[in-house]
Design brief:
By secondary structure, the protein is of the alpha+beta class. It is built from 19 helices and 20 strands. The strands form five sheets. Strands 2-1-5-4-3 form a five-stranded antiparallel beta sheet. A five-stranded antiparallel beta sheet has the order 7-6-10-9-8. Strands 12-11-15-14-13 form a five-stranded antiparallel beta sheet. A hairpin with a 2-residue loop joins β9 and β10. The longest helix is centred in the C-terminal third of the chain and has 48 residues.
C-alpha cells in the first residue's frame, strides 16, 4: 500500500491542511504518475482538462494513477514534467523554477523535492507551484502548516536546522540525524554551536550576536561557507553552510542547511598532493635537464620552444632572446644564422635554414655542426608521442680532435711503412753501388786518372746512405737506445756543433737550467732533432737573426684543462727552440709535420726534418 493512500483520520487531516494551502501541490510516484493532488492543483488541472475535452465531466479521481502525457497528450507541460522526472531519477531537488501556467499568464514558482522511504529509496516526488503574486500569503500558509514543513524537511538531502535568535535549535530534519548521529529530539533545545568545533562554534555565536546588535551579517544570505562540525562519536566533519532568515509571527528564526563535503575535501586534498608531487617531479626533471652537459631543447607540436637548458644557451649565445621568448624553430634557426654561430650557415643562410628544417625531428639523422668558437656538436632530434620534438646537442669537439689525430696517425703509419720499405730497398741498391765502385777502384789502381770520378760518387753514396738512415728513423725501424739524459749537459756538448751549422750573422743564445730534471731519451736521436731544428732556423734567417735555446722544468696540468690533451699530466723536461726568422704561413701550419712536406725550394729540403723531430718526441 502506498504511503500516500488516504486510509485514516491522519491522512484526512493532512489532506484538509494541504487543500487549504494556496498552492498547487501534487504527489507523484516513481513513474511520475499522480498519487495525490490538492484542491489548488485540482482546480488548475480541471480547467486544463475541460479545455482539452469539454464533453465529459472531469473529477480529481480522473487524475490519480495517470501521468500528464496520458491525460493530455505528449508535449503538454513537457518542460515541467521533464524536470519532475529528472528529480525522481537523480534525487536532486529543484527549487524556485519559474514558469508560466498553461491556461494563464500568471508566473508560477515551482519546487520539486524527491520523496524517500525509510531506506532512503526514491519513491516519487512532491511538487509545489506557487503563484508569485501571492507569495507572502503562501509563505505564511506554509509556515503555519507544521505537517507540510516536516514533510519537506524530512525528505531534504541536506541537513536542515531551525534556530532562534539565541542560537538554540528548534527543529531539525532526518538528514541532520544521519549527518551528526543524534536523534531530532536530542537536538532540540541545545545550542547549534555544540555541533561545531570550538573555533567555529565561537565564531557562530559572535556572528549571531553581532547581527542582532547591528543588523549586519557576514554569513546571512552570503552563500556557502566551510565549517567544521562534530559527530556524536567525536569525529570531525567538513561542512558547507548556508544560512537564511525567517520572520514567523513576529519572531526571528534562522534556517541553516549543512552539506557534508568531507569526501570532496579529501578529493581536493588528494588532488593538491598529486599536483604538488607532479610539480615536484617536474621541477626535479627541469633541474636535471638544466644540469646536464648536453644542450637540451623541447618543442611543442607547433615547433615552438617550451623548454631549454643552460648548456644550450652557452652553445648559441646569440639566440638567447629567441629562447626566452618561446620562438619557433624556424625563428631560432634564422637568429643563429644571422649571429654567425654556425659555420655552415655563413654566406648561405637561407639554404642552411631550409636544410635544417627538412631534417628537424627525424631521429634517423644525426647531424654534426661546427660552431663559430671552434667547437663541434652532434645534434639528435626525436619526435615525442604528442608530436613535439626533443633536440639534444652533444659536444664532440674532443672526439673530432681525436678522430683527426687517429687519421693523422694512420697516415703516418702508412707513410712510415712505405718509407721503411723504400729505405731498405735503397740501402740494398747503395750497397751494390758501393761494392761496384770499390771493385772499379781496385781495377784502376792507384793514381789512375778516372779515380777523380769515383771519389765524388762515393761521397754521394754516403749522403744517400745518411738519407736512408733518416728515412728508417722516421719509419721507426731503427731501435731507440733510451738512457737518462741531463738536458743541460746535452746542450753544452751540442753548442759547438750547432754553432758550426749556422751561418755568420746568426747569434745563438742558450738559457740552460743547470739543476733541471733528467729525462729518458735516445741521445743520438735527440741530438739529431736539435740539429734539424737549428738547420730549419738557419734556413729561415738567411740575413741573420737570433736563435734561442732554453731548457727548463715543466709540469703538465690536468689534461682536461691543458692545451695538449694527448699529453698525460706529469713532470717533463722542456727544451724550446725559437728563432727570429720569417716563420711559416698560416695555411701551411697544419701540414708542417707531414712527411716529405717542405716549404723550401726544390732540391733544398727532404721534408723529413720536422716530421722526424715530431715523431721522435711523440
Amino acid at each position: 500500500m502506498s504511503k500516500f493512500e488516504l486510509t485514516d483520520v491522519t491522512d484526512v487531516l493532512l489532506t484538509t491542511i494541504l487543500d487549504a494551502v494556496p498552492a498547487s501541490i501534487s504527489f507523484r510516484d516513481s513513474a511520475n504518475r499522480f498519487v495525490y493532488i490538492n484542491q489548488g492543483a485540482a482546480e488548475k488541472y480541471l480547467l486544463l482538462a475541460q479545455s482539452q475535452d469539454s464533453s465529459r465531466d472531469w473529477s480529481i479521481e480522473d487524475f490519480i494513477g495517470k501521468s500528464i502525457p496520458e491525460l493530455f497528450g505528449a508535449g503538454v507541460m513537457e518542460g515541467t514534467e521533464n524536470l519532475i522526472s529528472k528529480v525522481i531519477k537523480t534525487g536532486e531537488a529543484i527549487s524556485d523554477h519559474e514558469f508560466t501556467g498553461p491556461l494563464s499568464t500568471d508566473s508560477l514558482r515551482l519546487s520539486i523535492t524527491p520523496l524517500l522511504d525509510d531506506r532512503n529509496n526514491i519513491t516519487g516526488a512532491v511538487t509545489i507551484a506557487i503563484d508569485v503574486t501571492e507569495h507572502k500569503e503562501m509563505e505564511r500558509a506554509i509556515q503555519d502548516s507544521d505537517a507540510f514543513n516536516q514533510a519537506v524537511m524530512a525528505n531534504m538531502i541536506d541537513a536542515l536546522f531551525v534556530i532562534d535568535m539565541h542560537g538554540t535549535i528548534r527543529t531539525a530534519n532526518q538528514a541532520a540525524e544521519k549527518l551528526f548521529g543524534y536523534r531530532v529530539d536530542e537536538f532540540i533545545g541545545h545550542p547549534i554551536s555544540d555541533l561545531m568545533t570550538d573555533g567555529d562554534g565561537q565564531n557562530h555565536d559572535d556572528y549571531l550576536s553581532n547581527y542582532l546588535r547591528t543588523g549586519h551579517s557576514k554569513i546571512l544570505g552570503k552563500g556557502p561557507r566551510e565549517v567544521l562540525g562534530l559527530h556524536k562519536n567525536g569525529k570531525t566533519i567538513s561542512l558547507e553552510l548556508n544560512v537564511g532568515r525567517i520572520d514567523l509571527n513576529g519572531e526571528i528564526l534562522f534556517v541553516g542547511s549543512l552539506r557534508d563535503i568531507s569526501e570532496r575535501k579529501l578529493t581536493e586534498t588528494a588532488l593538491q598532493l598529486s599536483q604538488e608531487e607532479t610539480f615536484g617531479a617536474q621541477q626535479r626533471l627541469v633541474d636535471a635537464i638544466e644540469g646536464i652537459r648536453e644542450g637540451f631543447a623541447l618543442y611543442d607540436t607547433e615547433r615552438r620552444m617550451v623548454l631549454h637548458n643552460k648548456t644550450l644557451r652557452e652553445m648559441y649565445p646569440g639566440t638567447v632572446d629567441e629562447f626566452d621568448n618561446g620562438a619557433t624553430f624556424d625563428e631560432i634557426l634564422r637568429a643563429a644564422a644571422r649571429s654567425g654561430a654556425v659555420v655552415a650557415a655563413i654566406g648561405r643562410e637561407d639554404e642552411w635554414v631550409a636544410e635544417r628544417l627538412r631534417s628537424f625531428g627525424r631521429g634517423d639523422q644525426a647531424i654534426e655542426q661546427q660552431l663559430d668558437d671552434g667547437r663541434w656538436v652532434l645534434i639528435s632530434d626525436q619526435t615525442t608521442r604528442e608530436g613535439g620534438v626533443v633536440s639534444v646537442r652533444t659536444d664532440i669537439t674532443k672526439l673530432k680532435r681525436r678522430e683527426g689525430e687517429l687519421l693523422q696517425a694512420q697516415k703516418m703509419e702508412a707513410l712510415g711503412q712505405l718509407t721503411g720499405g723504400v729505405a731498405h730497398d735503397f740501402n740494398n741498391l747503395l750497397a751494390i753501388m758501393m761494392g761496384n765502385i770499390a771493385l772499379l777502384e781496385e781495377e784502376l789502381g792507384p793514381g789512375h786518372a778516372l779515380l777523380k770520378l769515383t771519389d765524388p760518387t762515393l761521397r754521394a753514396i754516403d749522403q744517400a746512405a745518411e738519407l736512408t738512415n733518416r728515412m728508417l728513423s722516421f719509419a721507426r725501424q731503427q731501435p731507440l737506445q733510451v738512457q737518462a739524459i741531463k738536458p743541460s749537459l746535452l746542450l753544452s756538448n751540442l753548442e759547438p756543433l750547432l754553432s758550426r751549422a749556422l751561418v755568420e750573422g746568426i747569434e745563438i743564445e742558450f738559457s740552460v737550467l743547470t739543476d733541471g730534471w733528467d729525462c729518458l731519451a735516445d741521445l743520438g736521436q735527440l741530438e739529431q732533432a736539435m740539429l734539424n731544428l737549428a738547420i730549419n732556423a738557419r734556413d729561415a734567417m738567411p740575413r741573420g737573426g737570433r736563435l734561442r735555446i732554453v731548457s727548463e722544468n715543466f709540469v703538465m696540468p690536468n689534461s682536461t684543462k691543458s692545451q695538449q690533451p694527448s699529453l698525460p699530466p706529469g713532470e717533463y723536461a722542456l727544451i724550446s727552440v725559437t728563432d727570429t726568422g720569417h716563420g711559416i704561413a698560416a695555411a701551411d701550419l697544419p701540414r708542417i709535420f707531414d712527411p716529405f712536406f717542405t716549404t723550401k725550394g726544390i732540391g733544398k729540403g727532404s721534408g723529413l726534418g720536422l716530421s722526424m723531430v715530431h715523431g721522435f718526441i711523440k
